Automatic annotation (TrEMBL):
Residues 1-105 form the PLAT domain. This is LOXH1 protein. InterPro entries: Inner_ear_hair_cell_LOXHD, PLAT/LH2_dom, PLAT/LH2_dom_sf. Pfam families: PLAT (PF01477). PROSITE patterns: PLAT.
Amino acid sequence: NAGTEADVYISVYGERGDTGSRQLLKSQKSKKFLKGQTDIFALEAVHLGCLYKIVIRHNGLGSGKGWFLDKVVIKDPVTDLDYTFLCHRWLDQGQDDGNIARELPVTDASTFPGRQELEFKKEKTWAAEKWKFQKGITLQFYNRLTHGFICLYPDSRVDALGDKKNKYGKVFSMWM
């Protein structure tokens, strides 16, 4: 009994305005708002910029009018960002706090400026550094405190004392 047959409405708010209240009419599923089901709707609107909240509600009419909403995810086709709005509450006059409307702030980290750039840099860094984690690689780090090398061996051994030479026998001097 977590689904609803009531009419559901959503208002989406972004840095450039809002959509106003829109009824969610046609899901890609034959029956919408069933328990445990993910429904997908197309919503036409001007581009709102970065989204920061939604208001989602139902009209409280019909049999099975109470509704448990887990979350709403909005995919922005212009920026290719996903905005997640977590709810995990009832919209029901007889459950929870009795409200049939919820104002939900965005909770997805993808809305922070530069998120796509950060993801790109992370992928680029991993591509450059992943060799260090391949089987058989021994890592050596110079320790300024002991003036020696810390070695991490492929068999999970760690030599934290190290000597003042790397595996090629070169002595490193430190200038301060």
